[in-house]
Amino acid sequence: MQTIIWDNPVRIGVNGERCIHGPQDALQYLSELPQGGWFYERARNRCHGALERGEALDLSRKAFIGAAIEGSFPILDDDVPAIREP
Fold this sequence. Notes:
Elements: E1 10-12, E2 18-20, H1 23-31, H2 38-53, H3 57-70, E3 75-76
Antiparallel strand pairs: 1-2, 1-3
């Protein structure tokens, strides 16, 4: 099976200590989380779609970012604006 990666990895953690490089990494990460939530399910579906049916990679990446935000996990990514405490 060919490794499918995103153009830009998604960094998870306060200091970006874990890099999610593509839909396979995203599915592994999601399997370690408590299940639930609309974004979680959407991310799983989009990542499976990218791997099994060649669906758009950018949609799987965006769905994964949504699941990470939904789960309140720290995320370092240029696509996600930083939230600063007052």
